[in-house]
Sequence to fold (260 residues):
Amino acid sequence: MLDTNWHEIIETYKPLLLLKPDQIVFYPADGDTYKKQQILTDSKTFFVNAVAHELFTPITAMIGLVEIAKEEENVRETLCKIEKHLVRMQRIVEQLVLLSKIEQEQYCPETVQISLRKLIKDILNEYQHKIEQKKISVVVSLKASIKTDQEAFKIVLRNLISNAIKYSPDGGTIKIFSQKRFLVIQDEGIGIPETELKNITARFYRAANARTFSGAGLGLAIVKHILRRMGICWAIHSKIGAGTKVFIEILQIDQQLAGE
Fold:
């Protein structure tokens, strides 16, 4: 049985894909909310090697860049490009290591008290160049601390925030804020077609309007798998041309212990 907070979100934001630890439910935009809801089937395992193929792109790119560097032309520029690919590979490997831990039955989240604002600011600093390049305005209006597995939750937020940046238009706005017991990440991006929203967290799935953007369709699958093992409910609301709004239910949120 869902609590009243989720009832309000479901009634207000449709179409909506709600992802619970034991079930995925899709609520279409039209019709009676609970008569039209669709219970979706979904694999409970991620298969860690699904991420491995993402490593081939940066590795192939770096091999080519090394060949250019050997010619001693534009060496500094080439090294910067290699560094960019290495950072991408580092993040992929971080996700692989964490997912490997999660898929072991003895996995137990290591919960610590963390500042949400500081964690989000650290992630935004990683993408500062892209944010400035696209002239995106990011508004973070929350001061709260939570008890969570910092390593796992950082990967979750990094995937969601990087998606918001990637799909936002130049000059767009991203808002990150708390709404009752939810952490909300909202963008003004291209949005997800309703007919495809129910599939958006499947491995390698990419909506038709997103296929011109870089990526392998693994980010939301990773988020789903991590939050499922952490026992956290979350939801995605999106409309074409109106952007995407992600809700993450945070049960142990403390507005008084906020850190900068």
Observations:
- The first strand starts at residue 16 and ends at 20.
